[in-house]
Design a protein that fits this description.
By secondary structure, the chain is mainly alpha-helical. 79% of the residues lie in helices and 0% in strands.
C-alpha cells in the first residue's frame, strides 16, 4: 500500500507543479486552489509512504514521478518542446524509479 500511495502522491506533485505554473505567482484563484489542495494531498501521501519506505527512496520516487509527468504533460500540451532526447531521458528516469522499487528494503 505505501507504494501505491507514493505513486499517487507523485502524480499529485505533477498536478501542483503545473497548477503553480499557471497561478501566475499565486494571483489566479482557481490554479492557486488546485495548487494548495494538491500540495497538501501530495505531501500527506509522501509522509504516509515514508512510514514504511526509506526516506531517500520515497523522496526520489516521489520527485521522479512528479517531474516525469510534469515534463510529459508540458510536451503533450505544447507548453514545452518535445524531443527524442527528452523522451529518452524521461524513460531513463522511469527506469530508475522502477529500479528503486525493485531494490527497496521496504518494497513489500
Amino acid at each position: 500500500m505505501p507504494w501505491v500511495v507514493l505513486i499517487i502522491s507523485g502524480v499529485l506533485e505533477a498536478v501542483w507543479a503545473t497548477a503553480l505554473g499557471r497561478s501566475e505567482g499565486l494571483s489566479k484563484p482557481v490554479p492557486t486552489t488546485v495548487f494548495a489542495v494538491a500540495l497538501l494531498a501530495s505531501m500527506g501521501g509522501l509522509a504516509y509512504a515514508m512510514r514504511d519506505l526509506p526516506t531517500g527512496t520515497a523522496y526520489a520516487v516521489w520527485v521522479g514521478v512528479g517531474a516525469s509527468l510534469t515534463v510529459v504533460y508540458g510536451m503533450a500540451t505544447g507548453a514545452e518542446t518535445a524531443s527524442v532526447a527528452k523522451m529518452l531521458l524521461i524513460a531513463g528516469l522511469v527506469g530508475c524509479i522502477i529500479g528503486l522499487k525493485l531494490v527497496s528494503d521496504g518494497g513489500h
